[in-house]
Design a protein that fits this description.
Blueprint (H helix, E strand, L loop, with lengths): L1 E9 L2 E7 L3 E6 L6 H13 L8 H4 L6 E10 L2 E12 L2 E4 L2 E5 L2 E5 L1 H12 L12 H6 L1 E2 L6 H4 L2 H11 L3 H38 L2 H81 L13 H41 L12 H98 L6 H100 L6 E4 L5 E5 L2 E3 L6 H22 L8 E5 L7 H13 L4 E6 L10 E8 L2 E5 L3
Parallel strand pairs: 3-14, 3-15, 9-13, 13-14
Antiparallel strand pairs: 1-2, 1-4, 4-5, 5-6, 5-7, 7-8, 10-11, 11-12, 15-16
Helix pairs in contact: 7-11, 8-10, 8-11, 9-10, 11-12
Length: about 675
């Protein structure tokens, strides 16, 4: 049940609060006074902006930058307050965050989070969260005035699809479509599996001869292994003799190598001695030529850090001066724009009243004074900027002098260090030359001793060469046999793998056959039994809804229109059919009051059916009717009294400009509009 509604800058309302008592309430007032705005504000508070229905720009009051709606209501024994806000920004109106209070506990939330929580509190399906329209609320609680007769003019298939969504029957259509998609997928998977099965059968046939080839390969491997053993024994004997000869040859070669090494060392030492002497003489001449480095003259300059710090401060001050200049230039441009605009304005764009010449002159004089003051300030700022730039140039030049002096000191230090290193190198070269001369003499003595020892060893080079050729020949044959054995073993291993693969393929083939059959049976079940069951369930539910809907429709209509004049029923698409004197007639041919009666009866019947079939919906006790009596005769208005008394709702909110309807309800709230502002007249 609704408790109260607060509106701030919503359409024609500036700041108003509406209290809703229990029972039947009428919002009375002239056309355009703002009655329907209250209903739109209730819907906005619950569900936010609905795309394609009412935009934020249509709700926010013209000229206002911000507005909000706050709705207090009771649902399922819980006290709830929800607020949503609107904000104008950049030529558009957007919906911002709001809050929700449930039993005194406040929760800040975004627009989407608010809608989700409200749907949960009202017992509406969560699937409505992603939909732009709140169909369930529109058909059970509140239908805007301009949409009442749309129920009658909708295409049958569109109306039926809407009812499917309201009663959550479209899930059966989705289930059926999903079943078709799954069946198609199973068909595709079955075709793929059958293709795989065909490939496996061919592979099995190709692998069957592998068993015979494996037996032949194993016998050949045995023969090759025996031959390989004989050759290995022969190679071992030859290598034993070869090792003895190589030992003797090694001793001979070792002595010869040692002799050559010693001779090479002597040559290297002599060459190194020549290089060291040349390097010593060259370095000595270079030191005499260069002489001692000269220390640079001392300069009186500040430290580089002090100059940089001063330069940074001046640059920072220059930036601040430039920013101040930009602000004053902007202020001058603004004053000029105001002067130009006020000179051309004849009327106020807000209140549309004429602007007196004296007022415009005062505004121009005020702006000219501001312009003159800003120009003087700008001239002072320009002087400060020139002085700051000159100081920057002075400090930059001083910084260059500091850096130049530092570079001269660094170069002198490098030259001095280089001189010390060269002197040290000269001493080391002299010492190295003396050591090399001594080492050369010692190595020459060693060479003479080794040459004497080499002349005493026998020559066995020819015999060793012949033995090596024989070993290589036998080794080659053994390698060929080993290669043959390895090839046969690889072939046998490959054949064994093929046999294992054959077993796996046969197992996989049986598994695929079973899987193909399972896919076929499941597809048949989906296309037959499952889809038929879904169709029957949906049809039975739809027929149950239809019978109750049709009965309520006839009942409510008969209370509004004499059955002897007109009769109504629903066709199989839930479209209203009107019968007059035994003949079916088009709704468009009815009078305005008769069409309104058909629309109202259809709406009340739908409300009754939804309350009966959707027990989770917690808005069954609330009904809002927006101008339901359009075109009603005096007799129909009297019949409406009976209809309202039959409605089993705890709170009925009725919008009407018919004064007679005020006597049908418990409470009257009158809406008045004065100077574009609507308000509720209380106590009427």
């Amino acid at each position: 049940m609704l408790r109260s509604l607060r509106l701030r800058n919503i359409r024609s309302y500036v700041d108003e609060e509406v209290s809703f008592p229990e029972g039947s309430v009428i919002l009375s007032g002239d056309v355009g006074s703002g009655k329907s705005t209250i209903l739109l504000a209730i819907e906005f508070a619950l569900f936010g902006i609905l795309r394609g229905e009412v935009s934020g720009a249509a709700l926010l009051r013209h000229g206002a930058q911000q507005g909000w709606v706050e709705l207090a209501f009771e649902v399922d024994g819980r006290e709830v307050v929800v607020r949503r806000g609107l904000k104008r920004s950049g030529g558009s109106v957007t919906q911002g965050a709001g809050f929700l209070i449930v039993d005194g506990v406040r929760e800040e939330a975004t627009a989407v989070e608010l809608k989700s929580r409200i749907l949960s509190l009202l017992g509406y399906p969560e699937g409505l969260l992603a939909k732009s329209k709140s169909l369930l609320f529109r058909y059970t609680v509140y239908t805007p005035q301009q949409e009442m007769n749309r129920i009658l003019s909708e295409k049958p298939e569109e109306r039926l699809e809407t009812l499917r969504k309201i009663f959550d029957l479209d899930k059966y259509k989705r289930v059926n479509e999903n079943a078709i998609m799954v069946a198609r997928a199973l068909k595709g998977q079955g075709d793929v599996l059958e293709g795989q099965l065909s490939v496996l059968e061919r592979q099995v046939e190709e692998l069957k001869p592998a068993e015979k080839r494996l037996d032949a390969a194993r016998k050949e491997v045995l023969k090759v292994v025996q031959r390989e053993g004989v050759l290995a024994k022969k190679v071992a004997e030859l290598k034993k003799r070869q090792a003895e000869l190589e030992k003797q040859s090694f001793l001979h070669n070792d002595v010869r190598t040692k002799c050559e090494v010693l001779k090479g060392e002597v040559r290297s030492l002599r060459e190194e001695l020549v290089r060291k002497k040349k390097e010593h003489d060259d370095l000595l001449g270079l030191l005499k030529e260069q002489g001692e480095p000269k220390r640079p003259a001392k300069r009186k300059v500040r430290s580089g850090e002090a100059v940089r710090e001063a330069l940074a401060k001046v640059r920072h001050a220059l930036v601040q001066i430039e920013e101040s200049r930009a602000k004053h230039e902007e202020r001058i441009d603004q004053c000029r724009r105001v002067i130009e605009r006020i000179k051309t304005v004849s009327s106020c764009p807000t209140c549309l009243q004429n602007v007196p010449e004296e007022h415009r002159q005062r505004v121009v004089e005020k702006q000219e004074l501001l312009l003159e003051k800003a120009a003087r300030n700008l001239e002072k700022i320009e002087k400060k900027m020139r002085a700051a730039r000159e100081r920057v140039e002075e400090l930059e030049e001083e910084l260059q002098q500091v850096q130049k002096a530092q570079e001269e000191e660094r170069v002198f230090a490098i030259q001095l260090k280089s001189l010390e290193e060269k002197k040290k190198r000269l001493r080391l070269l002299a010492e190295a030359c003396a050591l090399l001369e001594k080492a050369c003499k010692e190595k020459e003595k060693d060479v003479a001793s080794v040459e004497k020892k080499l002349a005493a060893l026998p020559e066995i080079k020819g015999e060793l060469s012949a033995l090596r050729q024989e070993v290589e020949k036998v080794e080659q044959e053994r390698r060929e046999v080993a290669g043959r054995r390895a090839g046969l073993e690889r072939e046998a291993a490959l054949l064994e793998e093929q046999l294992k693969r054959l077993e796996l393929l046969q197992e996989r083939m049986q598994s695929l056959k079973k899987e193909v059959e399972e896919h076929r049976l499941l597809r048949q079940w989906l296309q037959g039994v499952f889809q038929n069951v879904i169709f029957v369930i949906e049809r039975q539910l739809l027929m149950s809804i239809y019978h109750e809907f049709n009965a309520y429709f006839k009942r409510w209509f008969s209370m509004l229109i004499d059955e002897s004049v007109l009769g109504v029923r629903l066709d199989e698409h839930f479209s209203p059919c009107v019968e007059q004197n035994g003949f079916e007639t088009d709704v468009a041919h009815l009078s305005g009051g008769e069409r309104s009666a058909v629309a109202l009866a259809y709406r009340l019947a739908l409300n009754s059916v939804i309350s009966q079939f959707m027990s989770s919906v917690k808005t069954r006790g609330l009904l809002i009717l927006d101008e339901p009596t359009d075109g009603f005769s005096a007799e129909q208005l009297d019949r409406l009294r009976e209809v309202l008394s039959e409605l089993k709702v705890s709170q009925l909110i009725l919008v009407s400009h018919e004064s007679k309807v005020e006597s049908f309800v418990d409470h009257v709230l009158r809406v008045e509009k004065l100077e574009h502002v609507s308000r509720i007249v209380r106590g009427v």
